[in-house]
Design brief:
The chain is of the alpha/beta class. It has nine helices and nine strands. The site of carba-nicotinamide-adenine-dinucleotide (CNA) has 29 residues, from helix 9.
Length: 244
């Protein structure tokens, strides 16, 4: 048995012996769907832009330099054609079977819902939801993608259409945070995958876990966390490929 099969067997056993699994994920969950993460070697933070990507997606930058923000956002973040990978699909199946109660995600790509998951708690919002800053009308991701102007404008009032995505310096929605905390605190198995756990407050939600086992999955062989009972260094999509 190779290391992938071995780790998959361990993960399957942990799931089988749990009654309430919660999945906490980050950008690494979608790299196998072709969406780059932030902090891996091939991630967005290691690519060259006119400005530091971390600065571009901050609230003050959005307010001061909308053109540059939307140039980066359209090129790098507004990915609408990605497909769910085996991790997204296996999690949706586990929810259907009543094993998994919630997915808490830092991702904004909507791939868990595309895979069929229902209870997806999006800590950082979604590129699929967009609002006019002036009249609050709603627009989907395709509308923003196809908007002829670089800065998307509301056809009704001319206001700027802002993605419903939590930028750096912005607060998380209180109701969303509460749902995430409750879900994590009620889990007996918490699977944490594809996240560097450096973005706060999201990363601190792990502290609400009081269940039996916390399993961390990351492809970076150096990634560890003192809260984890077990660390599996695998590609999360590949690993979940055979999970039932
Ligand atoms: P991050 O800081 O980029 O960390 C990603 C982590 O995942 C790293 O530890 C990688 O080693 C690991 N990783 C990457 N690919 C895999 C893989 N296939 N299997 C296992 N591990 C892998 O991303 P975080 O999510 O921790 O940071 C939070 C930010 C990233 C959130 O605010 C997100 O909105 C934002 N983000 C989201 C997306 C998306 O929605 N798909 C993409 C890029 C960034």
């Amino acid at each position: 048995m190779n290391s992938l099969e071995h780790d998959r067997k361990i993960l399957q056993e942990a799931i089988d012996s749990s009654r309430n699994v919660v999945f906490f994920g980050g950008a690494g969950v979608s790299t196998e769907s072709g969406i780059p993460d932030f902090r891996s070697k091939d991630g967005l933070y290691h690519q060259k832009y006119a400005y530091d990507p971390e600065e571009i997606i901050s609230h003050h930058f959005y307010e001061q330099n909308k053109e540059e923000f939307f140039r980066f956002y359209r090129e790098r973040m507004l990915v609408l054609d990605a497909k769910p990978n085996p991790c997204h699909l296996a999690l949706a199946e586990l929810e259907k079977r009543g094993k998994l109660s919630a997915i808490v995600t830092q991702n904004i790509d909507g791939l868990h819902q595309k895979a069929g998951s229902k209870n997806v708690i999006e800590l950082h919002g979604s590129i699929l939801r967009n609002y006019c800053e002036d009249c609050s009308r709603f627009y989907d991701g395709t509308f923003v993608k196809n908007c002829p102007t670089l800065v998307p404008r509301c056809p009704h009032c001319g206001g700027v259409i802002k993605p419903d995505v939590v930028l750096y310096e912005e607060s998380l929605d209180v109701h969303v945070m509460t749902k995430a905390m409750i879900a994590i605190s009620e889990a007996d198995l918490l699977i944490v995958a594809g996240t560097s756990l450096v973005v706060y407050p999201a990363a601190s939600f792990l502290n609400y876990f009081q269940g039996r086992e916390l399993i961390l999955i990351d492809r970076n062989p150096e990634k560890e966390d003192e809260r984890a009972d077990l660390v599996l260094h695998q590609n999360v999509g590949e690993l979940f490929g055979g999970i039932r």
